[in-house]
Fold this sequence. Notes:
This protein is mainly α. The protein is built from 5 helices and no strands. The chain has helices spanning 2-26, 28-62, 68-85, 89-99, 101-122.
Amino acid sequence: MNTVLFLIIGIPLVEIYLFIKIGSQIGAFNTVLLILITAVAGVAYARYEGFNTLKSGFGQLVKNEIPVYEIISGATLAFAALLLIIPGFATDIIGILLIIPFTRRIILGKFIKARKTKKADENNFIEGDYEDIDDNDKKI
């Protein structure tokens, strides 16, 4: 809960700070123009990468393999496109990092490794059978 509250308050504060700093350097009109250009170009590139991911997923299906990476990559691309549509420089940087295949592979690789180690920790158990023995049922 605290993380969500921090993100809801923190992200707009960072974006406003960056708007002010960058706007004072390049001007208000150029700042707005830059935000619009990154949104349009980012969404167009996300669409292009989305079609590449879809094509790769169909290639995996033809080989009778489950396209796990392609499914995760497609969801990541949709999230990246959302970040690029939201006005702001910090969200644009994160969105661009998620769209570029090389950085997306690194980020998803770290996420998948963290998920696997968490799953491995959850599966530390020993399977066995047991039988309840009641002291009153014993014969002398």
